[in-house]
Structures are given as structure tokens and as C-alpha cells.
Amino acid sequence: MDDNILNFLPLNPATLHILLALAGEDMHGYGIMQEVERQSIGHYKLGPGTLYDNLQKLLDQGLIVERSRTGGTESRRRYYRLTAIGRKVLAADLDRLETLVRESRLKVRTPRRA
């Protein structure tokens, strides 16, 4: 795994949404899909293929880890958690996006001179 955070940026939309969904708590796949839809107010929906392809990529990169819950009906579900590097990558991409939005707003509010 490459610990240089900049090598992971910019995140693609699916990856950004998955990491953001996992920032609050460990979640299983369906829970991630629901959280992404909730956080985006229904504007972004992940299908199972996109979700699980991206989860595997994130596991391979070391940005998330897989956990299984023990006991009850939850024991068959696989839960995912952000790693420390995953949290740093997410924070770096959110900083990048905040800068982009701030700069864009300045340009929109400041008219060009002819």
C-alpha cells in the first residue's frame, strides 16, 4: 500500500461517497448504499456491482478493512470500517473539494472586467 495520500486523489464519486458513509460507523454493504443515498439526498445511488467492486478496491488499497459481527442474524453480514489512512485520504479529498468550491464561489461572485 502506498502511504502517500496524494497518490489516492482525487477520489472518484463512488469512492468518495463510500468513504464518507463509513466515516461515522462500521456498515455492511446495504447500509452503505442507504447512507450514500441519504447523504446525497437521493442524487447519488450506488448499485450493488459498483459498490462491491469499489469495496474490493478499497480493501486492496488498505483504505478500509472488513469486519464480521458475531452472533445473531448479523453474523453473516460483512461490515466495513475506515482505516487510519482511509480517514486521512477522505479528509484530504474533502479539503480539496472545499478549496474548489470556495475558489469557484469567488469567481462566480466577482464579475470579469472587460
Description:
- Strands 1-3-2 form a 3-stranded antiparallel beta sheet.
- By secondary structure, the protein is mainly alpha-helical.
- It is elongated.
- The protein has a single domain, classed as Orthogonal Bundle (Arc Repressor Mutant, subunit A).
- Helix content is 54%, strand content 11%.
Question: What pattern of helices and strands is seen along the backbone?
Answer: HEHHEEH
CATH top level? Mainly Alpha
Identify low-pLDDT runs: none
| Helical content class | 40-55%
Arithmetic mean of pLDDT: 90
Order the strands across the largest sheet as they lie in space.
Answer: 1-3-2
CATH level-two architecture: Orthogonal Bundle
How much strand content do the residues show? Answer: 5-15%
Per the CATH scheme, the topology name is: Arc Repressor Mutant, subunit A
The coarse overall form would be: elongated
Biggest sheet layout? 3 strands, antiparallel
Number of domains: 1
What structural class do helix, strand and pairing data support?
Answer: mainly alpha
Task: Give the helix/strand layout.
Elements: H1 13-22, E1 27-28, H2 29-39, H3 48-61, E2 64-68, E3 78-82, H4 84-109
Antiparallel strand pairs: 1-3, 2-3
Helix pairs in contact: 1-2
Task: Give a short summary of the structure.
The protein is mainly alpha-helical. It has one domain (11-109): Orthogonal Bundle (Arc Repressor Mutant, subunit A), CATH 1.10.10.10.
